[in-house]
Amino acid sequence: MRTKHEGGHENAKSRNKNTRTYFFRAFVFSWLVCSVWLVADSNGLDPARILNPLGDQWPSYSGDYTGRRYSSLTQINQSNVKNLSLAWTARLAGGAASGTPAPGTAPVVVGGEGTGDVVVAGAITVKGSILAVDGVLYVTAPDNVWALDAHDGHTLWRYFWKTKGGTHIGNRGAAMWHNYLFFVTPDDYFISIDARTGKERWHKEIASFAQQYFLTSAPVTVGNHIIVGTGNDLAAQIQSSGKADFDAVIEAVGKPEAWEAAVQLVRKGGTVNFFGGCPKGTTIKLDTTLIHYSNLTLRASFHHTPRTIRRALEFIEAGVVHAGDFVSGECPLSDLPELFAAMAAGNQAVKTFIRVNA
């Protein structure tokens, strides 16, 4: 089987020792005789397109804002899904490129705050959602972003971030706003790159690496805002000037600074729901003038009731919420004491699945 590698061919022996590769596969109907070639909009992804029913594009982490990941396309169904076959295979390379690029090789853009001395152990794998916008696939893994031609899988460009370290358990994907891509890194940076070239526009540290925060989440485009979060923190990068103007803001991390920030993010007449409970005795400072003259509604909710837990389970069963997105590991029941010890030592796991019968 022949594969494409960064838009050209390369002898495997010449790859840098820190370069990691893996395969990416696409499936199409083997009997399909026609294809649709999309013409890219010069302005990229208009955020209003994310409001459209999910069809031949996949412009955000869950496809659209419903989170159902259900396409309105009907060409593939239960009767013909068996006819799917392999269309192409592409070999994706990670890490910084070395030496002079071969003619025809896709460009590699290197950024980062690290020195390049940190070598991440283990194979890099794609665990996030892949954006599909106007015939281009945008694929992410920790410290890496690729743009692939959806028709044959060849690499259009690649971006590599030289990391300072951190927990490289995965990357959930990127967000897109017009011609700009946004993604996060394990060492707590929020990065914007040009979706047409892979060139970096800017990067910002949004959590303290010294305090061992780490980022894996996929940013989300909401109008002219890009929302990205990490455990116990939240950052909003606003692409247009002016104050944030959300209709409702739900605070769900239980930190006093998040409570105070939530009030600043809501529009006039908007609502703030303080869902995350802070420890007993916690106090916060709120701008009473802002609350009064902006006619804000502040609410608090407590979620540990049988009705709300039952409702949450119904969401998981119906596929509205994908529980697997919140599970970062698993272990047998016999290893439970070791797991508790690791959690107490700060193992940074999000949720761990316990296999009772293992």
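The record above closes out task 2.4. Task 2.5 opens with a second protein, given below.
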Amino acid sequence: MSREPLSAAIATGSAFRRDDEPPPVIQRLGWKYHHIGIPTKAPREGEKYIAQYKMYVSGFSRSPFGYEWMRFEPDCPLSAIIQTLPHVAFEVADIDAALEGLEVLSPPGVPSEGVRSAMVMHNGAPVELIEFKRGPLGGRAGKAAAVAIDRDVARFDRWAESYDRSVVQRYFFVPIHRRLLALIAEKGTTAPPATVIDVGCGTGRLLRRASLLWPEAELIGVDPAERMVSETVRLGTKARIELGTAEALPFGDQCADLVMSSMSFHHWADQGRGIREIYRVLRPGGLFCLADHSFPLAMLTREKVRSRSQIRALVSAAGFTGIAQKNAGLPFLPITLARK
């Protein structure tokens, strides 16, 4: 894609576009059509919640034409123009260069991992610009890792509808959740947390149990599997649910009192980066509670299992202190507690 600013493309191009010509931003700048965003007030199936913008989006992943429905909460911070007018979105190579000379409605933000987006105005119409950071690991190994991650997410998407009814949930995950929350209540918090985030929330079972323990808390779940997120909403989980990964949490700095993660750590692409992200979003004095298995044979299935000492080292390297580890009923199921 060209890094030429839009103003230059218009100035050096024809003042008129023929019927059979693509728009100048495509023809001259190499921008790529991505989607059309349509505001709506009606809840729709498969909505994904974007917390920092207080809005829901749906439809994009299944639309053959690339439309995306947008539903906004009353206190959404975005411009009223964005909330009321449809917009067209283009993928650009360099969003900062593309914004040069344009009227910016919403500055570049990070709605999800590897994505930067901004909204501009042109002749009274809103336009979204999107920049993707592809292949962060690089090379063949990076591509192989990306494929493995995609397969992992796809596997959980296939499980979504039956996942919460599995006997594994009842006899394995539920006891872990009970132990995790009991340890937090016993050793972690002197006062109920105001904001709680569950990283790798799956279908929201841990969040639903946490809502009984802290009924006044703001509960937020994050998971990379779109259908798991949809199932969490369908099950009536009283929480805000985000589509995202541990490595790029879609939240601002120091916004949470407690971050939990149960049995998802061995799926994270970059565990060290994920823990650093958790440190970033926790308020000073905030608590991180991680439950994950350390069963060595799981390495045969390419799971990123870590020993107790390896988990402790990663947590310490991120800046956490007061690290303690307890069993979740079995020796190979450690729960790690640490404070920012």
